[in-house]
Amino acid sequence: MIKSKSQRDIIETKIIQEIEKTKESIIELRELTAPIAPDCAIGRVSRMDAINNKSINENALRKAENKLKGLEIAHQNIDDADFGKCARCKNEIPLGRILLMPHSRFCVHCAS
Fold it and tell me: Which CATH number belongs to the domain containing residue 22 in this structure?
């Protein structure tokens, strides 16, 4: 539970910043995961590297999209009485963790 309006405002600002940063990252990753044209004149090894990099970027894109969903949920629920409490153990999540990972619903102990 958030203890004060100033904490709430700090958390909300952090969530909004993270949402914007994550949206920008998703745009970049979508460009990097575009299909590789077979007629593109690159060597076989370069094509294999490009395919491998595409796979890595697709994984990063999925993680960024999941993070964005979590951030949007956190932003919607910031005024809920349970915001800032671990979804598993119901203990309060320290403010530092909320600011570091506002999309996380778990305390450090339950997240591991």
Answer: 1.20.120.910
Q: What is the token pair recorded at 112?
A: 């591991």
Q: What is the pLDDT of residues 15-69, one digit of tens each?
A: 999 999 999 999 999 998 887 666 555 666 676 787 788 889 999 999 999 999 9
Range of the domain at 43: 5-111
Q: Please report, as a single letter, which amino acid is at residue 43.
A: G
Q: Cβ(29)–Cβ(61) under 8 Å?
A: yes
Domain count across the chain: 1
Give the contacts of 74 (CB within 8 A, at least 6 positions apart).
15, 83, 102, 103
Q: What is the DSSP letter of 90?
A: -
Distance CA 95, CA 36 (A): 44
Residue with tokens 């090894």: 45
Q: Which residues contact 5 (CB under 8 A, 6 or more apart)?
A: none
Rounded CA-CA distance 94/85 in Å is: 9
